[in-house]
Amino acid sequence: MKLPRVRFSGRRLLALVVKEFWQIVRDPSTFLIAFVLPMILLFLFGFAISLDSYGTRVGLVVQDSSAPAMRLAQAYQHSPYFEVTTSRSVEPLRKGMIDGDLRGIIVIPADFGDGVARMQPPPIQIITDGSQPNTAQFVAAHAEGVRSQWATIENAERGVSISAPVDVSARFWFNPELNSRYFLVPGSIANVMTMIGTLLTAMVVAREWERGTMEAMMATPISMGEFIASKLLPYFVLAQFSMTMCALASVFVFGVPFRGSVLTLFAISTAFLMPALGLGLFISAATKNQFVASQLALITAFLPTIMLSGFVFEIQSMPVPIQLLTHVVPARYLIPALETVFLAGDQWGLILPNIGMMLLFGAIFFFLAFRFTKRSLD
Amino acid sequence: MAGPVAPDSVASAVGITKAFGPGLPALDSVGITIRPGKVTGLVGPDGAGKTTLIRILAGLMSADAGTVTILGGAPSERLDDIGYMPQRFGLYEDLTVRENLTLYAQLRGLPGEEHEAVFGRLYQFTDLGRFQDRLSGKLSGGMKQKLGLACALVRTPRVLLLDEPGVGVDPISRRELWAMVGELTEQGIGVLWSTAYLDEAELCDDVYLLSEGKQVFTGPPADLTRRVDGRVIRVTGFADRRRMALTEALDRSDVIDGTIQGRAVRLLIGPGVPIPDAEALGMGSDTLIEPAHPRFEDGFIERLGGGPKGTSALATSYREIPPNDEPAIEAQGLTKHFGDFVAAGDIRFTVPRGEIFGLLGPNGAGKSTTFKMLCGLLTPSEGTGSVAGHDLRHAAASARASLGYMAQKFSLYGDLSVAQNLDFFAGAYNLPRARARQAIERMVEIFDLGDRLSVNAGTLPLGFKQRLALACAVMHEPPVLFLDEPTSGVDPVMRREFWMHINGLVQKGVTVLVTTHFMDEAEYCDRVTLIYRAEQIATGTPDALKAQAGALGQIEDPTMEDAFIALIEEQDRRHTQGEAA
Amino acid sequence: MQRIWAMIVKEMWAVLRDPKARLVLVAPPLIQLFIFAYATTLDVKHVDIGLLDRSSGAHSSELVSRIAGSPYFRHIVPFENFGQLRKAIDLQKVHAALVIDEDFDARLARGEPATLGLVLDGRRSNASQIVNGYVSRIAGEMGLELLPPRMQAAAGGSTVTNWFNPTLSYFWFTLPSLVALITSVSGLAVTSQSVARERELGTFDQLMVSPLRVHEILIGKMVPPLIIGMLNGSIYLIVAPVFFGVPFTGSVLLFFPALFMYMLTVIGIGMFISALSQTQQQAFLGMFLAAVPLIILSGYATPIDNMPGWLQIVTYADPARYFIVIVQGLFLKAMPASVVFSQLWPLFVIACITLSAAAWLFRARME
Q: Is residue A258 very low, low, confident or very high in pLDDT (cuts 50, 70, 90)?
């Protein structure tokens, strides 16, 4: 095809943008994706997903009625980590373990009191529900933690200091209370921007093909540059708007600290929207069908953003082939940048390389999108 | 600046060939010239290649071979001078009428200060002023069409390309559209009008007739009809046996085509044979033969070597529907409300066994609502109806079991093969296994589907889709058939084949209810009812309606379309008088 | 009966022959199998840890070599000063950093307790907690060995037994849960398209004028997703033990009725969405809208115990919640029939509700 004869016209672009605006406002599925889904996702991630185990239900089997055993049992009952069901033996608790009601059993053995008296307490037994490994690890760690704290105090009261020779003093920077919401909520912004940037954009462009309006557009003197710009601008603004809403909700509803600058946040989200919008345009140009476009957007953008971005699951723990795969997921570069700007502040040394990678992917997707968006029905 | 333009051409294309994948090319060396101030007709059945050619002219596709010149340049250099209305009008359904116009005006660079003047003119031209703020998705088909045209006209083009503007539009809107195009040609615009309706071809100045990508005829429409001058006859005088008469006539070797027109039969006699007289036709002593005015379609059929013969293999093998005094279809005061809106009010008619009954009316008038109530797709708000003696309210499932249904849009399962579609419908109508196998074998033989059994139904050529749809509808030999614009867009030979089957079935006692705004189909009906603004405004035989309209409008020998328009205009007049009084 | 059969056969073909439907059928299960099984792990491995060793004595070297020898850690990055450490944490070059003070060796040599500093990146709080656990365990073990035996004994201890999954393998968790996820997603996807597709392609009217009754149409539309779901479930039942070594300890005779009941609930939801949608596009969005909360509230992503109380109540309406318990139980816990039934009757109630809601909506939207 020849280069478009027409020059870029701001007025035509404005007309297209105004059209797009009315469509966003009036089309129910656009509205759903742009406003309803982001809120649902944000609240699900804010409330429903939490990796912080407090009040985990465990069984406590006290086979000994001595005073020390009772004191240890009390220590478990008062621990904020556990909600304790007491029993005389393990057997009655087995059903709870099987139907998922209990996540662990702590057994204080029969000779516990005697052992404490002889200064040789026998080990307590911690049984976890291995079917949920993450919870099992926390149960084991917290149960042992409660016990060793109890032992230190118990011994100290008898004048014996058994405080561990090597004591680890851990400091959790940026998130001392270890609130998982602090990284889940900002992380969900990545999902929201993917929904709008990729899914919605892919759908609205495919819709023009499906409804035959693309054909009518092509018969007018508009250039493809104007057409693409008219799709980018409104959805860019819409995604930024949703991002802002989510950021505000993170800070004011979920109490996530915001230590960076607003400008940096916008720089990061702008950089991410380049690959997101580019991918959306590319998908729609390649498929020209709303249904297929939305499926592809889900598979190539939304799922990777959740699974492969390091948002919930640690990339370094994945097998090497999948780790390599994560490098082509633009959200992988967004997540650390987002977490940093919220929790750590403007760490340009980390943010800039990530912005660079996102822009690189943006350039690639835009190139593909332009290659595939032809001003022709062939 | 427009380049040098030949005075008699605003657009021309020479030797255009275009193929999509292997197989027959969509266009095979086709040429066309659009003259200024003239309507050029691009005529042919669906799938003939009309849309492809228009897209190539509009610069939306490139041809594999051949050249396109629009006002002396390539199409992509002349976008400002091309007005193009695609088949689905290119309207944004979420935008109002005004917003659509504004969008296209701005895209075409109409200066802002001229908007009001131009829009005012277009509103007046299209009569859409009242609906400025309505979402275009909520407009009727005819209004969408007008808006699509208005959008193509915001900046007066020199070439106007209209892709099937007449599809899905009732005769009134169609006539208005033609009037609008007439005004445009007076301004010197060259208009290309593509259509599958051959009767529209007669209204064009030049006609390019396409069939399967090939150019079959080029020239003024009269050139084609002239060839059959004197060979078209109108035979009357056998009122009750017209279907039989047509079948017999078509089986004669000297008759190459025939259709029913009200109580008359219209025959096209083959070239070089004498016009048969009454005796030769053997239709009885009352038979009256008079010459008829040849039409474009006659010329086309003759070009294609004549229509199908008269006897329907389907009808021959069909069971005889036992005679019955009860009406086969009955509507008693059928009424449907959607909220405050009355979609159909107090519709009453009865159709005896072995008749074809037509529901006519403009889009949105209520004929589809009535049709849907009778076939059980909508529950009537008031009134009752029955099909083959089964009450619609109390025995809906048995009513449904005794009807066959064929929709306007191809509505079989496109991703299923032909055989799977047949199997499904045999099962859905509860045919016992052995009977189902027999029925399917019979359908495959009658409709010549044997080679295509494993082909996806969606990829069949239009004519075969039509056959398959009919096969699925009649496999269970229902006493009643419901047809919803069954032959729109189908080429005339296929349409004749279809009606040949229907006529045959009716002779076996099958009763047919058909909705249409396609006047050819209306002519096949024994009686029709015209529904307008949810009311029945006229009911009777096609000839009676024509006579009624003739008296109203003092039209000599009105066509069914004239009758349709005259009756509706009369109703409008009464309506306004009623309001005034 | 014959009509229902015709309907079922037609629906099966519709699913298998429509390229779009095939996409729905093939892509999600494959992606879920590979990505979910391998990527969705909350395990923490291959950790890069920084080291600021100001003591450089025998004990600190011992500690560092123990950490280096642990399978959880990958690289140990030495730092010269605290500034470097801060920067490395800030830029996520390392996940955590050990700070060993100058007097570390000296204190231990004197028999005094010494403190090991550990700085962790709280941006990744879950992983940091686990890393903290690893380091504490190694440091604790080393410290204990320095104590006189009598004192070691007085400190006591604990033994940890992991029931059902002794090595805490994540596969053992993910693959059984995948049975629930895959059947939900494919069931929802196939069902939600079924009516919407007919509406969009214009075959819906054709279907409605045939003598098929509403319940025949509904049954016909429910059987294919049911078959596909059962098939998917069966495939995982074989793949999980054979390829991933996850044991199936329960009874297959309990697995299939439970899967069947769960599929009914999901198909009810899918059919409801489909009856509501005019186009396949809308059906897809509706499915998405339903699938995300269905999965997140099931307890698969994170334990239900961790959710706020009001949300825990909401999870009782999520059928996946019960089915996850059943599959995890049947795979790993040799769940007996009585426990399976205690999870099955809520599924039955939910199935009744979703199916009747779907049938009601289908009837209501027939016009």
A: very high
Phi-psi region of C202 (alpha: psi -120 to 50; beta: other; left: phi over 0): left
Give start and end residues of each alpha helix (H) in B305-378: 313-317, 367-374
Please state, in angstroms and rounded to a whole number, the distance separating the CA atoms of residues C232 and B381.
46
CA B163 to chain centre: 15
- Decide: pTM greater than 0.90: no
Q: Which of C239, C104, C101 is nearest to C178 (CA)?
A: C239
Contact indicator for B371, B482 with CB cutoff of 8 Å? yes
Give the pairing type, strands A104-108 and A56-62.
parallel
Model-level ipTM above the cut of 0.90: no
The values of phi and psi at residue A62, to 5°, are -110, 105
Interface of A with B (CB under 8 A): 1-2, 4-6, 9, 11-12, 14-16, 18-19, 22-23, 26-27, 211-213, 215-222, 375-378
Q: C263 - beta bridge partners? A: none
Separation CA C29–CA C260 (nearest Å) = 18
The residue range of the domain holding C266 is 167-366
- Mutating which of A291, A296, A329, A338 best tests the C interface, going by the most C Cβ atoms within 10 A? A291
Split into its structural domains, chain C has a count of 2
Q: Which residues of B touch C210 (CB under 8 A)?
A: 400, 405, 425, 428-429
CA–CA dist B183, B189 (Å, integer): 9
Check if C30 contacts A (Cβ < 8 Å).
no
Query: Phi and psi (nearest 5°) for B508?
Result: -85, 0
Do residues B189 and B161 lie in contact, with contact meaning Cβ atoms separated by under 8 Å? no
- Which range marks the domain in which residue A36 is found? 10-49+179-372
Domain boundary among A157, A191, A209: A157
A226, A143: one domain: no
Per-block average pLDDT, block size 10, for chain B (581 residues)?
A: 56 91 86 93 86 91 90 85 86 90 89 89 86 86 85 90 82 84 91 88 91 89 88 81 84 87 86 80 77 88 82 88 88 89 89 92 82 87 89 83 83 88 90 91 91 88 87 92 83 86 92 85 89 89 88 79 86 82 62
Task: Find the mean pLDDT for residues A37-53.
Answer: 82
CA-to-CA distance for B61 and C257, rounded, in angstroms? 57
Q: Which chain C residues are closer than 8 Å to A350 by Cβ?
A: 90-92
Give the CATH number of the domain where residue A98 resides: 3.40.1710.10
Buried b (16+ CB within 10 A) or exposed e, C167-183: ebbbbbbbbbbbbbbbb
